Amino acid sequence: MSVAELGWPIILLALAGGALAGFINTLAGSGSAITLTILTEAMGLPPLIANGTNRIGTLAQSGTSFLEYWRNGRIDWRRGAVLLIPVGLGGILGGLVATQVSNEEFKTVFRWLLVLLLVVVLIKPKRWLSKEATEPQWPTWLLIIGGLAAGFYGGFIQMGFGPLFLGLAVLGGGMSLAEANVYKIVVVMLYTPILLIAFVAAGQVHWPYGILMAVGQAVGAFFTTRFAVRSPKVNQVAYAVLVVVVVLACLKVLYTS
Hints:
The chain is an all-alpha fold. It has one domain (4-256). Helices cover 78% and strands 0% of the residues. It contains twelve helices and no strands. The chain has helices at residues 8-27, 32-42, 47-71, 77-98, 103-108, 113-122, 125-129, 140-156, 161-172, 177-201, 207-230, 234-256. The relative contact order is 0.22.
């Protein structure tokens, strides 16, 4: 089915939902809960095809945010390397595995992990809201293992990766929430092109639907990143969005289980 055959209500839903996902993903994560729902329920894609197609929008929004952060001098490659490298490697591996699993495995893999995410987000709220970065709280070897695990999950399904990475970067890596969000964007932008190639090779990408969603996601990411760069209250806003996102995701899991 082409985009034109979807009808204007679904096209507008895709653009608006993509923009909202871009906003959520830039400040917290789990915006893929919106995009995957639209791709599967409104557009009728099977879960595996939706997972691959979703990477087009992920690349568009992360690339848009990356350019804004880079232009404003917010990326310190040496500071982020301890997480960027293992998370990137784990993301590539998780994406390759995702091309080989069944639809049912894909739908059930993330359910109860969201409850763990809620616990992580509510730990040490003062630390999450602090504007000041500190020295890493975990030893390097533990950050590397945690990065590989978080990256594998992100590459496998993407939805829920944001809170996982933020918890690792803030509580383990000593970053402020605003700083952690920058490196979350960077690492997703780095590994997503490789994953997209793998999904394309597996025949699991619907380009017209993916590009439509990507337009909305890029717009949402652009304006949200500009806010994040300029606003002194970005930590408070990001934390509020993060808590709401994870609570709603947990409620959905409990309601549908």
